Amino acid sequence: MINGAHVIIYSQDAEADRVFLRDVLGYTHVDAGRGWLTFKLPPAEVAVHPTDGRESHELFLMCDDITQTVADLTARGVEFPDPPQEQGWGILTTIRLPGGGNLGLYQPHHETAYNL
């Protein structure tokens, strides 16, 4: 019945962030019309976390080797406002998008669900 998920990143500079996803991360895409690019993402998984505060949604990219991934992306001009930090469940850092937003990046220590 459900065959996919569509993630939206809101941005103060959508064009710059589209260029970043296309040229820096190398994500393939389709043009949905008038330059609105829709990108193919790597395999994904979803988790539900409890909150006592306002409900929100977050997007994290995942990698196998955060040290190498950060080095590769840094060489391409990507900024990381926070150094990778051990969280117990994985090693987490933040990618600064050209539009000013942030995107999480982590190397999980836990079993992943996207290959099930």
TrEMBL record:
InterPro entries for the chain: Glyas_Bleomycin-R_OHBP_Dase, Glyas_Fos-R_dOase_dom, VOC_core
Sequence ranges assigned to domain VOC in this UniProt record: 3-108
Gene3D superfamilies the UniProt entry points to: 2,3-Dihydroxybiphenyl 1,2-Dioxygenase, domain 1
SUPFAM superfamilies in UniProt: Glyoxalase/Bleomycin resistance protein/Dihydroxybiphenyl dioxygenase
Regions that span the bilayer: none
Protein known as: VOC domain-containing protein
Species this chain originates from: Kribbella sancticallisti
